[in-house]
Amino acid sequence: MKELNNTDREYLLSTIRDIPDFPKPGINFKDITTLLKDKKAFGFLMNHLEERYKSYNLDFIAGIDSRGFIFGAPLADRLGIGFVPIRKHGKLPYTTIGEKYALEYGFDEIEVHIDAFKCEKAKAKVLMIDDLIATGGTAFAAANLINQAGAECVEACFLINLIFLQGDVKIKERTTVYSVLEID
Ligand code: AMP
């Protein structure tokens, strides 16, 4: 089961709630807490991700602050590999490398520990994961960070891709993209 069929996609989609105008007017926020609290849906999603990635021979899962942690950490545990948090600026305690990215107004920055992907291999194979890709700015910065930290981002995985924003176009310059659900 590498990708879900339409019935399974519809099922997962039905467990995600839309919150119009959150956190500001014009944004239709995809609320995944309704999926997470549904043990059948959460288990179904995690089984799917485990099935897809168990043959990828990954060394680490890198989850993006903060909802990427919710899926990334249990997936790493299921695959028997390590989990690396990519965090917002100022949250990580050891030496970090950072990457700035543009927001609608201004900039934001994400960071990773400089030694996060050190392992017995010369270049660790990393899966990046987040709950949602919108404009793609966060994910593109995260892919750059993984490369700067000396690892290879073998795929970027999202539960939801807001495809009308075409955020995945830029990140495809860096890595392959898998979205469990695509929303027009
Ligand atoms: P972007 O950098 O524009 O791709 O934004 C991606 C990040 O913002 C992800 O970490 C998402 O969790 C969050 N995000 C952006 N838009 C939404 C949305 N409509 N619903 C839920 N989360 C969103």
Description:
The chain has 184 residues and is α/β, with parallel strands linked by helices. It has a domain at 56-183: Rossmann fold, CATH 3.40.50. It has helices at residues 6-13, 33-36, 39-53, 67-79, 137-148, 167-171, and strands at residues 17-20, 28-31, 60-64, 82-88, 96-102, 107-113, 125-133, 152-162, 176-183. It has a 7-stranded mixed β-sheet with strand order 5-6-4-3-7-8-9, with helices on both faces. A two-stranded antiparallel ribbon has the order 1-2. Helix 3 (39-53) crosses helix 4 (67-79). It is globular. The two termini are 24 Å apart. The mean pLDDT is 96. The structure holds adenosine monophosphate (AMP). Adenosine monophosphate (AMP) binds at residues 27-30, 64, 67, 130-139, 167.
Judged by helices, strands and strand pairing, the structural class is alpha/beta
Strand content: 25-35%
Side by side, the strands of the main sheet go 5-6-4-3-7-8-9
Assigned CATH architecture of one domain: 3-Layer(aba) Sandwich
What's the helix count? Answer: 6
Structure described in brief:
This protein is an alpha/beta fold and 184 residues long. Helices cover 31% and strands 34% of the residues.
Give the SSE layout:
Elements: H1 6-13, E1 17-20, E2 28-31, H2 33-36, H3 39-53, E3 60-64, H4 67-79, E4 82-88, E5 96-102, E6 107-113, E7 125-133, H5 137-148, E8 152-162, H6 167-171, E9 176-183
Helix pairs in contact: 3-4
List keywords for this structure.
binds adenosine monophosphate; two-stranded antiparallel sheet; 9 strands; 31% helix; 184 residues; 6 helices; globular; alpha/beta; Rossmann fold; seven-stranded mixed sheet
